[in-house]
Fold:
Amino acid sequence: MSQRIVTRPLTAEAFAPFGDVIDVSGEPDKMINQGMCGRHHDKAILDFSDGKAGISVFNAQARELPMRLDMVERHPDGSQAFLPLSREPFLVVVAPDENGRPGTPLAFVTAPGQGVNYHRNVWHAVCAPLSEQGQFAVVDRIGDGPNLEEYWFEEDITIQEQ
Amino acid sequence: MSQRIVTRPLTAEAFAPFGDVIDVSGEPDKMINQGMCGRHHDKAILDFSDGKAGISVFNAQARELPMRLDMVERHPDGSQAFLPLSREPFLVVVAPDENGRPGTPLAFVTAPGQGVNYHRNVWHAVCAPLSEQGQFAVVDRIGDGPNLEEYWFEEDITIQEQ
Structure:
């Protein structure tokens, strides 16, 4: 069976069942630095279970659309945030859980200045920059154990642009 | 008394007494995603004391060099990381502590892809983008109390380019 998933722009509302969009949308919660800086406060639900927060940097190779979606993964022990160190868009693919397996995936393309935080144990595709600039700061769990479950699709799933 | 501080490029070595440079320098600690992504693992010493980690977004107005350095601040209860959501350089100013007051400041300018983490209780100037693009993801302590100490300089201190 073959399936085609069409990308849509990333919005907080559509992404809410899977995680948080981290950006400057809306009014700042607080003005700081003598009015020179707006703070949009505490934008992500972080959960590192028995581990602790860490900041790593991912340097990922570009993908191109249309793209075959081979697999998704999830981290049972912690949330994972991707913060792009550039203004380049990237691809965000998530799937609802259906009895321990991923259901039909959803695909989003970010706007400049948008990061995402996958909630703990949410199925998502691997980091997929859509340009040569693939550097991300990643806030995830530092701790023991593999903290990784992969699911390889048998179906032929293609992500394509709208 | 007037003082002139000259900016230098940000390096991990020069910044080490104050915090961590968060970037992709060196070999990745691990290749992930079927070899498509390098993970530079756990690049920052995070310390949130009795609080917890949060991700906020700062949207700061641009500064220009030369710039008057009016004040520095520190956060006694936690570290604070600035992760630029762009490739634009920003200004990083820190100062050693000398008996509870800031000593002579040091000024750095970042390269594209560099973020910083100020260690807990390190004197630093406020977030200072050098371009109109002033969006940063900030990883700092979410918790009770003001977690802020400011020091306003009486001297006339100017930060200028090399």
Q: What stands out?
A: The helical segments of chain A are 12-15. Residues 2-28+45-156 of chain A form a domain with the Jelly Rolls fold (CATH 2.60.120.480).
